[in-house]
Amino acid sequence: MEMKKRISLELRNRSPEEVAELVVDNCRSSDGEVEGLTDDFKELEFLSMVNVGLTSLAKLPSLPKLRKLELSDNNISGGLETLAEKCPNLTYLNLSGNKIKELSTVEALQNLKNLKSLDLFNCEITTLEEYRESIFELLPQVTYLDGFDAEDNEAPDSEADDDDDDEDGEEGAGPQGDYDEEDEDEEGSEGGEEVGLSYLMKEGIQDEEDDDDYVEEEEEEEGEDGGERGEKRKRAAEDEGEDDDEDDD
C-alpha cells in the first residue's frame, strides 16, 4: 500500500490537527521520500515509519511537537540535519537497520538538544572501533545508545513499564478483590458468631431470669400455702381451746 493511502486510512475521519500518534509501518514510499505528511500534523508526538523504503528525509514536514520517531529498517544513509530543523523536540530516534556508516553522518544530530535515546543497531557504523565511546562523546545529550547507557545500564522501556503497570493493576485488582471478599466473609462470620454468641448469652440470661421468676413464684406459692396452713393450725388450736373450756364447764 502506498504511504499516502495508508496515512489517509490512519486518519479515520479525523483531521491531521487531531492526530497525536501515527503508525504507517510496512507501507511503500514510491520514490523513497516521505509522502502524505504535511505541516497540518502539528500535534503529532509519535511517528512510526518502519520498513517503508525511505532513502531520504528531505520531504519530512515541520513537526514541532514530535518526540518519538521510528525509522528503522529503511535505506537512509544521510540527510539527518533535516531532523534538527523539522523535529527540534525529538527525545527518541530509532535509525536501526539503515545505511548509516560514518560518524560524520550522525554528527548532524548534535542540534537535537533534547535527544536522550538513539538507536543505530544493525547499521554499519556500529562496527567502527570504539563506536559507543565515540557516539557518546559526539552527542553528549544522548543518555541511551542502542538501548544502553555509557555504563551499560539498560534503558527503561516505557511501553513495557506501562504494560507492567496495567498487568499489576489487573492482577492486583483480582487478589485484592478476593481479599476484600474474604475479609467480608470473615467479618461476616465473626459478626455472625458474635451475634450468635450474644443471642445465646441473651437467651441464657433470659432463661436465668425465667428460672428466677419461676423460683420466686414457687416461693410465693409456698408462702401462700404456708400461710394457709398457719391459718388452719390457728383455727384448729382455737377449736381445741373451746373444746377444753366446754369440758371444764
From TrEMBL:
InterPro entries: AN32, Leu-rich_rpt, Leu-rich_rpt_typical-subtyp, LRR_dom_sf, U2A'_phosphoprotein32A_C. One of its GO terms (biological process) is chromatin organization. Residues 128-146 form the U2A'/phosphoprotein 32 family A C-terminal domain. It is found in: Cytoplasm; Nucleus. One of its GO terms (cellular component) is cytoplasm. It holds the Pfam family LRR_9. Residues 149-249 are annotated as: Disordered. Keywords: Chaperone, Chromatin regulator, Cytoplasm, Leucine-rich repeat, Nucleus, Repeat. One of its GO terms (molecular function) is histone binding. This is Acidic leucine-rich nuclear phosphoprotein 32 family member.
